[in-house]
Amino acid sequence: MDKTNAIISVKNLVKKYEDFTAVQGISFDVYQNEIFGLLGPNGAGKTTTLEIIETLREKTSGEITVDGYSVDKEASKIKRIIGVQLQAAGYYPNLNLVELMELFSGLYGVDIKPMEMLEKVNLQDKAKAKYKALSGGQKQRFSIATTLINSPKIIFLDEPTTGLDPQARRNLWDLIIDIRNNGTTVVLTTHYMDEAEQLCDRVAFVERGEIIALDTPDNLIDQLISSGFERKKEVKKANLEDVFINLTGKEWREDN
Amino acid sequence: MSKPYNHTKATLALAKASFRSIMRSPSAVVFTLAFPLVFILVFGFLGGGGVKVDLAIAPGSDLENPIIKALEEISVVHIIKDKDAADIKTGLEKGHIDALIDVQKNPSGKPAYLADIKYTSASIDKGNILKSVVHNLMYTLNTKDVMPTVAQLNESTVQGRIYRTIDFILPGQLGFSLLSTGVFGTAFVFFNLRQTLVIKRFFATPVRKSSIVFGEGIARIGFALLGAVFIILLGHFFFHFTLINGAITVLNMLLLSIIGLIVFMGFGFVVSGVAKSESTIPPISNIITLPQFLLSGTFFSIDAFPTWLQPISRALPLTYLNDAMRKVAFEGAGLWDVKHQILIMVIWGIGIYAVAVKVFKWE
């Protein structure tokens, strides 16, 4: 990977609220066309960091550029080249998926065919359904479809797989890898380390508003092993999730 | 990135989405259409009846005589036959029956008939009406063949426009429909869009805040105007609601509706900002809508209120919308003729939007 080609650059980002500091001096780069993971416990500052990059939140200090645009001066230009999936965001009530797609195409000022967008995330059968009536996995897939409407250079996914069953989770991984393979940079947050290990080219561990480690998953694991760490139990060649998937099948289900 | 971002397109996309959503929302349809329609139907059918005096005929009374015949011709008098003496007595005591008449042939020949009328203190007003009706009737009957010696009275009535109950009720109901859709609709929509992070997701697109407000406003105005046209046409064709200048009058009423709705939506923005949870929206909205519903001349003319209450009525924006609507519809006034009412609504608008800008919350 060409390391000089940073599409997002964050330098000394600080976000203070009245009573506490959510982000204290974070710096990192996201490279073009990688899947970058922000990992860490709840309240570590992952979502705040994402939302500042997405221009949804004001920062206290620091410098951020997204594809060469500064978040301070060119927020509207940044909005046109990014796609955003928010944690727990809802959609306009009483509309079906096709109508929501039409709404977003108007909001982004692009002409798209709603059905084609829904096909990308395998929701063409749900075209006339309301967002509320979708299952957890379908909701997340729909959210991701709305991030792709403006053919963005970067998409941000905030905990896209939280609360999904193993099949839905793996389907989403495939979808995210597809999106990356089509040339889009992906920035995501997650609580699941197996997910980060499988999906992410590089990960940053965020703890109390600071980055405490940033590297490829492989390098981070190697570093830990070279420091003498050993698992208490020898790892088998499969885990319980593999058993589950093997027993219940990997196909996309109607309800996930 | 090839072409510049189109804010109009974004606004219209929002308006379309919002309009679709409103049309599928049961509460919006109920408040804008069903509620006012029920009142219009009720008053539409009640209207035109006027005062009725219930006059019972005593059992054993002579029925084939000019007095009873003449009374039956009078529309104000409602003759009740076939009641026994006990029923009539309790009816009179309770005021269900306003008077009792007993007509007998005069055995001594002249005058031909003797009529006894008994009034009740339970219904003095209607008794007085009957009294003057009967006196008039007796005078006419007794002087049928007599030339007047002092002066002859000639009576006639100028043919005027008939002012029906619907002409008063419909503008009031239309105003109330605009008030509730403006306040409740706007408050719920913006509160919910904020709570469910729909607005936050919008902010991740290049759309402007003003587009969100305008898009929502266009949809709500469009919906309310559809409702207004429906109410006006229904009233006109089924209950003879007066539209002096036809289509022009309807157009003027719709323009007034837009002005009113914009003002009322300002209240909605304030409520959505002030409300702490979804369940506090209805009570806060009711504080705004109910007093106007009762005090703004929706059902009764403000002039009928006690004098201490009238200044309050005359401070409310719906009063002026109702007033302007009635002038336009019944008197054929143009918008310039109701500029005073419009001006007061505009002042309310400026005031309420000044508050809305302060208290409205986006997130």
TrEMBL record, chain A:
Gene3D superfamilies: P-loop containing nucleotide triphosphate hydrolases (3.40.50.300). One of its GO terms (cellular component) is plasma membrane. PROSITE patterns: ABC_TRANSPORTER_1, ABC_TRANSPORTER_2. It holds the Pfam family ABC_tran. It comes from the Bacteria. Keywords: ATP-binding, Cell membrane, Membrane, Nodulation, Nucleotide-binding, Translocase, Transport. One of its GO terms (molecular function) is ATP hydrolysis activity. It is found in: Cell membrane. Residues 8-233 form the ABC transporter domain. This is ABC-2 type transport system ATP-binding protein.
UniProtKB/TrEMBL annotation, chain B:
One of its GO terms (cellular component) is ATP-binding cassette (ABC) transporter complex. The lineage of its organism: Bacteria, Pseudomonadati, Bacteroidota, Sphingobacteriia, Sphingobacteriales. This is Transport permease protein. Pfam families: ABC2_membrane_3. GO terms for molecular function: ABC-type transporter activity. Keywords: Cell membrane, Membrane, Transmembrane, Transmembrane helix, Transport. It is a multi-pass membrane protein. Residues 127-363 form the ABC transmembrane type-2 domain. Belongs to the ABC-2 integral membrane protein family. The keyword Cell membrane applies. It comes from the Bacteria. It comes from Pedobacter caeni. InterPro entries: ABC-2_transporter, ABC2_TM, ABC2_TM_bact-type, ABC_2_transport. It is found in: Cell membrane; Membrane. The keyword Membrane applies. Its main location: membrane. The chain crosses the membrane at residues 28-46, 174-193, 218-239, 251-275, 287-309, 342-360.
